[in-house]
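Write out the bound-state structure for GCB.
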Amino acid sequence: MLKFLLIKILFILPFIGLSQDLLINTSNRNITTLNGTWHYIVDPYETGYYNYRYEPYDQLKQNNNSAFYNNYHTDNKMALVEYDFDKSPTLTVPGDWNSQKEKLFYYEGTIWYKRSFDHTFTKENNRLFLYFGAINYKAEVYLNGEKLGTHEGGFTPFNFEVTSIVKPTDNYLVVKVDNKRFKEAIPTINTDWWNYGGITRDVKLIEEPSTFIQDYILQLKKDTNNSITGMVKINNAKINEKVTISIPELKINSSFSANGKGVIQFEFKSKKIKYWSPTSPKLYDVYIKTAHQILKDEIGFRTIKTDGPNILLNGKSIFLRGICIHEENAMRGARAYNEADALVALNWAKELGCNYVRLAHYPHNEHIVKLADKMGLMVWEEIPVYWTVDFTNKRSLNNAKNQLAEAITRDKNRASIIIWSMANETPPSEPRNTFLKELIQHTKSIDSTRLISAALEKHNKDGVNIVDDEIGKYMDIVAFNQYTGWYGGSLEDAPEAKWSIKYNKPVVISEFGGGALQGLHGTIKERWTEEYQEYLYQQNLKMIEKIPNIRGTSPWILNDFRSPKRVLPIIQDGWNRKGLISNHGIKKKAFFTVKEFYKKMQQQYN
Ligand code: GCB
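---
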């Protein structure tokens, strides 16, 4: 059986391309989890993928003219005996491989994952989809020896229909996961976080009726506060397929006929809407019904816009009391992937006095976004266009656009998300501006209701801090990172710093901070001590308060996090120490400095 599988894997169908239309709200569908134990083979030379002439087996079939292919075709079985998935060790999915096996801690390359499953359809003519929450970085997916496709991008979901391939028993699912960094990738080679590899999020089989609810949007109509608008997209809709939207608490229950593309669009008026906000994170039960299916969601309604220097949530001016978060459970030293991990981070954010979180530097898992909806935390979501992406490369742009589209598709019904962020600390240039402008346009074409931002940089001229990045013109919020007192700049003078910001828009400090080893004490002059970090925060906050149009901050960062760039022995040992909380979950002094500040800001903006 194993041999059969491998032969089929290596002589697979031609490359199919990116995953098909994304299913949303997967946790409320008819799912079977494929989480659990998977066998794996470490394949640093990608021997299972390339032949000895370094030609991908995937593509040889298209190349039948090649004498080489013909030779190799017959010989190939020889190579295959060197694999045996079922005798190979196992990894837990979801989960990164680095934290699960010591030998894989620094590994960057290909690992093959394999698991078997059975599937009995609950109803005749139902359809089956294979859904991955995320795989970092590149995935090639094969079921029963057929290639389903490839996906690039480590932090967004994708799915494939497998209805015609799946069998009642003994299905062989094989995934090639490759987390090698490369220049054209998004993110590129150089980042300040751990490049966790693996099937890092949930894997599901989703069984759907032959005609099913693919996608939908429900939200307050832009610039109104009593009109709920949106659309539903039905896959394989019959002509005039009936779709009902019901929100029982608002006494909304209306039916519509789908158009020729299987789409309905709607608008309801209601004067009784209770708006979602951090102080009252009201979510409504929403039901989308067809003759074949009922899909439930919980959706909050709120407006978000800017007016000059103000950010208005439901018409009221707010201050974003935020914190940056990486998708890492620091205490496990591993990629975070479930609701329990999300709860740890968001509870700390709440304790800090936050009404907002910046989920850095890539789309986090869906659990945390859904939890933010429930807990009343506004969210900045971003894609990993970080530092020096290859801005002139069309493939990189398409990849970034695709990651954006997948993130927005997945999360567009979450009231908590108020900002789509395009990039972090990208060096201004013409190609970079063109790249980001395309991303902005792309975002707006999918969702024009959220605010657009990016973490920009400041520079200093004649003692003045200047923010004049041209791309700021296209932003709703002018956000920038600044590290006064850590990467240069005097802490003593910080409160009196001068600022020149080119745009009359809300200003958010998307990052500031400095490192401290929790438990290391000394004077305010000694780097890495908790006292230095505390003083850095005190001085920075005095400065930030005076920045014109300031409407929010997200200090860098909630927790210490793993980064291969951070090599200072004893102090760092592979950890970026800028956390307000250590990797053992212990709060540093600076945590309480920020907490005090947020108490004050809460009173000011009440
Ligand atoms: C930054 C980056 C962030 C780094 C941080 C640091 O500006 O946006 O990813 O981790 O600085 O610690 O230097």
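---
DSSP finds nine helices and 38 strands in the chain.
Residues 1-19, 63-80 have pLDDT under 50 and may be disordered.
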